[in-house]
Prior knowledge:
Layout: E1 6-9, H1 10-17, H2 23-34, E2 37-40, H3 56-67, H4 78-86, H5 94-105, H6 109-119, H7 125-134
Parallel strand pairs: 1-2
Helix pairs in contact: 5-6
Amino acid sequence: MRYTHTLITERVVQEVVLRQDKSDVRTIRPLLSSGKIISKPTPNVPIISDYYAISETDCGVIRLGLAMPDLITIIDDKEEFLIACRYGLRPMFLLDVFVLLTTSYDLDKAMARNMIQSTAKRYSPAYVAHTLSMLG
């Protein structure tokens, strides 16, 4: 993972990585074991769920992002994204991170296109098409 340092919350590990069998989750498991992806505990505050009906896992992602403001927080859920913004976080969609890595950090465009295509089923066709066009 030449371009990024990746952190995920411990709750994401417990609820997603250890319990689901999707292809991207199967990819994450060895990266966690090797230390290329690091799991972190989340702060207890702010108590986001007092105001918004989102999962504690999503609250943890927002809180970890707030605790580490120098890092990019990736959020693909629209409601969670808006809530994060209300707390002053400036998250990015994963597709936008691929564009950022290509335009600012010399990620190979062909590799970025492959990454976008491999995650395309998570997004509407319009998001994917627009992202591919942003690569040039």
